[in-house]
Amino acid sequence: MPEFIDMLALPYMARAGDHLIGWRNTDAVGNAQFRREAEQWRQLLASRDGRNFALYMQDTIAFAAALFGAWQAGKTVYLPSDTLPDTCKALAAKVDGFLGDFEQEWKALALPSNSASVAATAAAPGDKLDGDFIGLVVYTSGSTGAAQAIPKKLSQMSNEVATLDALFGARAGVSEIVSTVSHQHIYGLLFKVLWPLCAGRAIHARSAFFPEDLAAIAPQRPWLLLSSPAHLKRLPESPVQPDITHLQAIFSSGGPLLPDVAAATHQQFGHSPIEIYGSSETGGIAWRQPLPASVSASVSGTARDDSWQPMPHVDVRLNDEHDCLEVRSPHLPDSDWLRMADRVEFTDQQKFYLRGRADRIVKLEEKRISLDQIERLLLASPLAAEARVMLHQAAGQRDRIAAFVVLTTAGRGVLEQQGKLALNTQLRAALADAIESVALPRMWRYLDAMPANTQGKTTLAALTALLEEPQTSSSAPAASGRPLLPEHRLVQRTETEVTLQLHVPENLLYFEGHFPETPILPGVAQVNWALELGRQYLPLPPDCIGMQALKFQRVIVPGATVSLELEHDIQKSALAFRLHSADGQHASGRILLGGAA
Number of structural domains, the chain? Predict the structure, then answer.
């Protein structure tokens, strides 16, 4: 293994107290403060019985201090991707306590307010973490099944930090780390916490989940952007763009980038994303940085190269029996070969193409059905821009194939002019020649965008939620009988974020008199929707005390379908909202809240 960085030696301990750890908005956080917080967590946890603790914090720097303090206290950290009630109930059976931003019922530990006098510890000779210690338990994303717990030795993560620095360290230089993804997943943890902290690069504590956040965070100093396909897809569409003068590189993980998204990102930001291929179980496996087809043709005269190249010290081979990838890596707990569920095609011993997942074969009425094949056929239709399919199994019902489709402009035209039944028929016809009738989708959902969690993953749980009947507001209509709120359906939900798909009724009361010949939705109604619907899904404080950064870019007309994204910033007691559709962004802003929740 490379020895550029040994995470187990806690490199930050040897750095000067005024070394910059990162930024909380515009406030610099120095190494002395960080070491002091880590030591406070070490002392607090060393005094507690039990070995396993769940950790969830939105602030990346505070999270990192708690993480390293826990490791120094000999505690194993469980890393959930959210703090939803079901997640916490499942964790409660496995851990001895909770740390960070959990609801009060879980009695999460916090640093005492009077502990600022604790001195930052100095690095002691031989003071080093135990590489064989199971320091972390992470969870798979749930994009191909139920989330699974994956234990990680500290040596695995130290090896991966060394690999990343050997591979990308020179390119990263002194760049600061800005991220649209959460550190509560292995990709964000490695790229936003462990690697920069051990390499001495500054971290931005706040994640930029919305394009407006990224524009606010982007520094006037060299920086790297950590992102995902779901986030990169919507960045070029936003009317609010970050200053990219000092942007050095873009990383993406969570799934392969579609060529058109990669091309749009290159055109908008001047960088082709560096894509990382791996999993929660294996860590990083391979990487690629394909140039857009137009750029590749002009530079080398060849087509875009979508092949993947293994990371240093990672061995790959083909399992001939299953056409699947096998991996041997220092990022794994042992030196054995691990068979993946990804089908691959090798171009030579060092490069390969991904060809779908072998575990996406399901059985329906004794027939073997490839979900990948159905998706490929749907994407070959001029009506579908993105497609996901799944086997839906519900108690008391027959198993059925469900399809989720983001439509092209042509597809939206069919839906608006001919209706859903006609669109269903046309898409089923695109499958009929290659798919047995039993495997044709029986359930169809048409979306503005695929639901994505904070890691940019589309999970089976999120797709299953879309199969429920569309929800409508429980609020009573106006005395006239005309509705005040839109029909809405839940697309994605975490403890602090919600995405809803809204259908704007043509007989909405707010259209009356605004304006008589060309009705449009008033801005005040849009703000009210954000607040009212936010209260249905998030534990918001009761009082609205102000608004910030309100922008209305495109009108919303009767019958429109739009997406509403909400983010509850607990520390600032604010609700950020964004309304957008296939036509672009309609409105955004921040609602300031107060009073007891």
Answer: 3
Helical segments of 301-445, H only: 371-380, 409-418, 420-432
Last residue of a domain, one of 357, 373, 400: 357
The CATH number covering residue 49 comes to 3.40.50.12780
Residue 482 located in a structural domain? no
Task: Say whether both 15 and 158 belong to one domain.
Answer: yes
Give the tens place of pLDDT for each residue, 16-68: 999 999 999 899 999 999 999 999 999 999 999 999 999 999 899 999 999 99
Residue type, 557: V
Please report whether residue 215 resides in a domain: yes
Q: pTM of the entire structure? A: 0.71
Using one digit for the tens of pLDDT, what is the confidence trace for 134-192?
A: 999 998 765 555 668 999 999 999 999 999 999 999 999 999 999 999 999 999 999 99
H/E/C letters for each residue in 525-580? HHHHHHHHHHHHHCCCCCEEEEEEEEEECCCCCCCCEEEEEEEEECCCCEEEEEEE
Joined tokens for residue 335? 């030196």
Taking the CA atoms of residue 242, residue 244, residue 247 and residue 250 in that order, the dihedral angle to the nearest 10 degrees is 60
Q: End of a domain among 418, 433, 466?
A: 466
Residue 514: exposure state from Cβ atoms within 10 A (0-12, 13-18, ≥19): middle
pLDDT of residue 125: 39
Sign of CA dihedral 68, 70, 72, 77: negative
H or E stretch covering 40: helix 31-46
